[in-house]
Amino acid sequence: MVANRRRAPEFSAGLEWFNVDRPVRLADQAGRVVLLVFGASSSIYCQRVLQDLKVLDRKYHDDLVIISVNTPRYAAERKRSHVLKAIDKHQINHALVHDPEKQLWNMYGVTAWPTQVLVDREGFVLGTMSGDGKLAQLDLVIGNQINKNTCINSLTPAPVTRHRTREVPAALSFPGRIITANERLYVSDSGHNRILVLSLRGDVLRQYGGEVAGFIDGNGSNAAFHNPQGMTLDGDFLYIADERNHAIRRIHIVTGDVDTIAGTGKVGIPLLDRYEVPVDVSLNSPSDVVFKDGKLYIAMSGLHQIWCLSLVANTLKLFSGSGKEGLLDGPASTAAFAQPSGLALLFNRLYSIDAGASAVREVDVETGAVRTIVGEGLFDYGDGDGTGKTARLQFPLDIHADPEHRMLWIADTYNNKIKRIGINSEFVSSVVVDRRLEQPGGLAFHDDTLYIANTNAHEIVCLNPNNGHAEALNVSEQLVEI
Q1: 479 within a domain of the structure (yes/no)
Q2: What is the SS3 assignment for 73?
Q3: Which structural domain range is residue 391 located in?
Q4: Is residue 376 within 8 Å of 354, Cβ to Cβ?
Q5: Do residue 14 and residue 143 come from a single domain?
Q6: How many independent structural domains does the chain possess?
Q7: Three-state DSSP class for 189?
Q8: What contacts 4, CB < 8 A, 6 or more positions away?
Q9: Are 293 and 400 part of one and the same domain?
Q10: Cα–Cα 20 to 30 A to 174, which of 63, 142, 228, 434?
Q11: Share of the chain above pLDDT 70, in %
Q12: Is the peptide bond before 114 cis (omega within 30 degrees of 0)?
């Protein structure tokens, strides 16, 4: 943390506040330590910082004021509706101020997501730090500041009254991903921290994991997940990217047993390119998995890489990506990804969705070499049909392979659209949908129906892509035994 003895700039008038009954003024907080966290909900790093803030909030509830400063990176993040959904999805209970024009960002000289700024009890900037994984440092500095004896102790800071409005509970909560097999739908009911098996008409046939987040192996609902995302099925086994547990989990769909096959439950940065005991390796926000020839390919969003887990040899190794965030083609060792979030296999080719670069990448399954199909740079996004650099996406999260139609389907999440790419032409086109989509996060194609995890609407949508008609699947909340 860099010392900088200057008074913290006051919040600009007219900014919109959330989770509090009135705007917060720094001048009224003399006597408390204030932690400002500049971030955007699209950043995997910012999402991890939110978990740290919950720890600090519990420990220093009376002496620390935490304020998230929502600073959009994408156009979609500027909308009030987006902020409300992000608050609910990430269970943000502390004060949040929306800064769409980056007024506070510029006043505080912030240059990166996330950035944390500490303000001491006298209203001076104590220091700043960027990136995630700073919990230990923040805890130490905040504790020292709170324990300091200063004349400011005699003041009574104005209370910050929290008030968070929650959405009405539904059968699903922010469903992230979906796959189909054997007349079944497998749904990552991410907000409820569980995996559901549904019939094609919406009956809940099986549930794995309870609604409480955790990292527990067990049977059925006795197991626990934390924000499960992408899945893949091989025979009697369902493999899951358990994102916030930083682990790969496996469900035996006959017995209902859930176990962990990679990851320790804690975030980490692997120091080696190969490991012989995958369950001893701390992974980093895995978002999706696909299966091919006894191997799981893993989109490791937090590392900007793709890893490979051999289910035969039980080894984990780096498959592609230098680890540098970017949009760079080339050999596996030098190529750069940007928050790869979705994977698909088609005709012996691996396709990756790079959410952070709004890009579609093609990866050679033999060598790991990377080629960009759609995308131009880290900050180049939009909404446009076309090929190559003329096409534009905005923070897409999933990609689905359709061999029958020689097509790739894309959840163009922040554009609230579904798009498709022809394998031969590589032309990107928007799909007509007669129903409002709200940040769709997952896709699966089955019998001429495209199933869409319409994430922010808490529903599964069934789309006929031939005529654009879409209907919500009536998901029963009652478990049906089979």
Answers
A1: no
A2: coil
A3: 178-472
A4: no
A5: yes
A6: 2
A7: strand
A8: 125, 126, 127, 128
A9: yes
A10: 434
A11: 96
A12: yes
- Maximum alpha-carbon separation in the chain: 73
Domain containing residue 393: CATH number: 2.120.10.30
Distance of alpha carbon 339 from alpha carbon 224, whole angstroms? 25
DSSP state of 109: T
Query: What is the tens place of the pLDDT at every residue in 315-342?
Result: 999 999 999 999 999 999 999 999 999 9
| Residue 103 resides in a domain | yes
Q: Dump pLDDT digits (tens) for 170-199.
A: 999 999 999 999 999 999 999 999 999 999
- How many residues can be counted in the chain? 482
Picking from 3-17, 147-161, 350-364, which range would have the lowest pLDDT averaged per residue?
147-161
Closest CA to 205 of 475, 459, 480: 480
Looking at the fold, whether 238 and 364 belong to one and the same domain comes out as yes
Q: How far apart, in whole angstroms, are the C-alpha atoms of residue 351 and residue 372?
A: 10
Tell me the three state secondary structure of residue 27.
helix
Same domain (yes/no): 76, 189: no
User: Is 478 among the domain residues?
Assistant: no
Q: Encode pLDDT of 89-147 as tens digits.
A: 999 999 999 999 999 999 999 999 999 999 999 999 999 999 999 999 999 999 999 98
- Shared domain check, 440 and 381: yes
Q: Give the predicted TM-score (pTM) of the model.
A: 0.96
Q: Are 195 and 229 in contact (CB under 8 A)?
A: no
The residue assigned the tokens 């913290």 is 8
Assign residue 292 a region: left if phi > 0, alpha if psi is -120 to 50, beta otherwise?
Answer: beta
Same domain membership, residue 182 and residue 150: no
Residue environment code for 93-107, b if the CB has 16+ CB neighbours within 10 A, otherwise e: ebbbbbbbeebbbee
